[in-house]
Design a protein that fits this description.
The complex is a heterodimer. Chain A is α+β, with helices and mostly antiparallel strands. Chain A contains 5 helices and 15 strands. Chain A folds into 2 domains: about 190 residues, no CATH class; about 170 residues, no CATH class. Chain B contains 1 helix and 4 strands; from the N terminus they run βαβββ. Chain B has a two-stranded antiparallel ribbon. Chain B is mostly beta strands. The N terminus of chain B is likely disordered. Classes of the chains: A alpha+beta, B mainly beta. At the A-B interface, strand 1, strand 2, strand 4, strand 5 and helix 2 of A face strand 1, strand 2, strand 3 and strand 4 of B. The complex binds zinc ion. Zinc ion sits at the interface of chains A and B.
């Protein structure tokens, strides 16, 4: 799926039979060198790469003070979102030093972070920056309290705020798997699309406090049938000395039901519990506490597990910490799947897997999901 | 044999003061230390580009001729669940994204 379609599905929901997505997006090519306001009359937003020596990137220094106080650490402002006033066109601008890749399949956020600040050109995934900025156009902020499904807020599209920066986050953004632009915060997108669909269906937009309470008390995210969901596992083990991983690369053709786990939800009797093995040592647990489902329609379809590793090669900046001097590898695992076409109602979803018995289990924290083809039903006071 | 087990701190950062401002600047910033990076909005960078209007190129000040999005105010920052800039969602019905001809957006990947 194209990155634009995927991201629109996340921000604004997916097309339904007889019901179009209430947000239409058109891509228009312009020539930003030509100073003619009528050439931009159709633009709601404008994206371009700045020229060397021009505002605003010419104003930024390319070294700064590191986390541990060392100065002269290379740094780079990759891009920015700039809205001069409410009556001007918001701008997405990329740093002139970047080689932007908007097309590749396996593009990392930054291809080789070790060369940042030393190379003339820096290769980055243009989509990760572009969709982050597009999020800002809609009002999305950097994530302060990420949804538990995002195992690491630093590797979500909207990222974290600078005030939340720590060494763990610093490592993981570069360590991020490819396709960072896929990782939207489920709650942030859920709120946006619910409001958008309410507006489009002429349903009342809840008052700020009402909405806030519905959101907090119900504490669920709304998803749509057939929406591609990425469950990012919260821990990733690495193997030392041997340096080898046992990859879990494919799911078996049949999924067998086994005895249920103990469920942490004491409030509601669970009518349906499925625990199916997607690998002898990988268990995905889906519980359903809503209406009974047609078995054949498929509750949740686990499609694939995506793994990626990142080998950390500690750099030796002046004054940098030597704590992590030994190279090590990180493993990131994401389970990709979707709820079936006929799935409706409230689900509790939880997944766990263990690569090998001797390694710590990875898990997706228990998550409540409201599955409906109509996001305008989400965060309504009548729902619970 | 060693393994790394990373559990990240997920909680408890309160939102910054939502300062009403016409100008919104969000910097996507990378910071090379060890091998790291993060999104970043830093006041020192904001200040660096807070210059007189005459120094701001025309392309950053083009008049918007399209319908404005509908703003919806949310009360989310009360508990620090800060999802939106100034707690305001901007609801668009239609967005025309204009991109400069030099950006390689055409193709199956985008
Ligand atoms: Zn940002």
């Amino acid at each position: 799926m194209r990155a634009l379609d995927f991201s629109l599905n996340k921000m604004a929901g997916i097309e339904q039979p007889g019901k179009q997505r209430p947000l239409k997006v058109h891509i228009l090519k312009v020539d930003s060198r030509i100073r003619n306001p009528s050439g931009f009359a159709l633009c709601d937003i404008l994206a371009f790469q700045s020229e060397e020596g021009q505002f605003p990137f010419s104003k930024f220094q390319e070294t700064g003070v590191g986390l541990n106080g060392a100065s002269g650490v290379p740094e780079l402002v990759l891009g920015l979102f700039y809205r001069y006033s409410e009556s001007t066109i918001p701008v997405i601008s990329f740093h002139p030093k970047l080689d932007l890749d908007f097309q590749g399949d396996m593009v990392k956020y930054i291809s080789d972070p070790a060369t940042l600040g030393t190379k003339d050109r820096v290769k980055v995934d243009g989509r990760s920056i572009f969709f982050h900025e597009l999020g800002h156009v809609l009002g999305f902020a950097h994530i302060h309290i990420p949804h538990p499904l995002n195992s690491d807020p630093a590797i979500s599209v909207m990222g974290i705020d600078n005030s939340q920066r720590n060494e763990g986050h610093i490592e993981t953004r570069f360590s991020a798997p490819t396709s960072l632009w896929r990782r939207w915060d489920p709650q942030q997108t859920s709120i946006y699309r619910s409001l958008l669909w309410k507006l489009s269906n002429n349903k009342p937009i809840p008052k700020p406090t009402e909405f806030f309470l519905a959101n907090m008390i119900n504490n669920y995210v709304c998803v749509m049938p057939n929406e591609i969901l990425d469950f990012n596992f919260r821990s990733w083990g690495t193997v030392g000395e041997s340096g080898m991983f046992d990859w879990i690369t494919k799911l078996p053709e049949t999924i067998s039901l086994r005895n249920p786990f103990v469920i942490e939800d004491q409030q509601q009797p669970l009518r349906k519990i499925e625990r199916f093995s997607v690998h002898p040592e990988v268990d995905l647990l889906v519980t359903h506490s809503g209406k009974p489902l047609n078995e054949s329609s498929g509750l949740f379809k686990a499609d694939r597990i995506e793994n990626s590793t990142y080998r950390m090669k500690p750099l030796t900046h002046p004054g940098s910490s030597t704590l992590n001097a030994e190279p090590h590898e990180l493993l990131f695992s994401t389970l990709v799947g979707s709820f079936g076409n006929e799935s409706r109602g409230s689900f509790i979803l939880k997944a766990a897997f263990q690569m090998k018995k001797k390694f710590p289990a990875s898990y997706v924290p228990m998550t409540r999901m409201q599955v409906s083809p109509d996001p305008s039903e989400c965060y309504s006071s009548e729902q619970n | 044999m060693k393994y790394i087990f990373v559990l990240l701190n997920m909680c408890c950062f309160l939102s910054e003061n939502a300062i009403a401002r016409a100008k919104i600047v969000e910097l996507e910033h990378t910071f090379a230390e060890i091998e790291g990076s993060s999104w970043r909005t830093d006041d020192s960078f904001r200040k660096a580009i807070d210059v007189d209007e005459v120094q701001i190129p025309w392309i950053f000040r083009l008049s918007l001729m399209r319908p404005k999005p509908q703003p919806v105010q949310l009360a989310s920052s009360e508990l620090g669940a800060h999802f939106f800039i100034d707690d305001t969602v901007r609801l668009y019905r239609e967005i025309n994204i204009c991109y400069d001809q030099k950006l390689k957006l055409e193709g199956p990947g985008f």
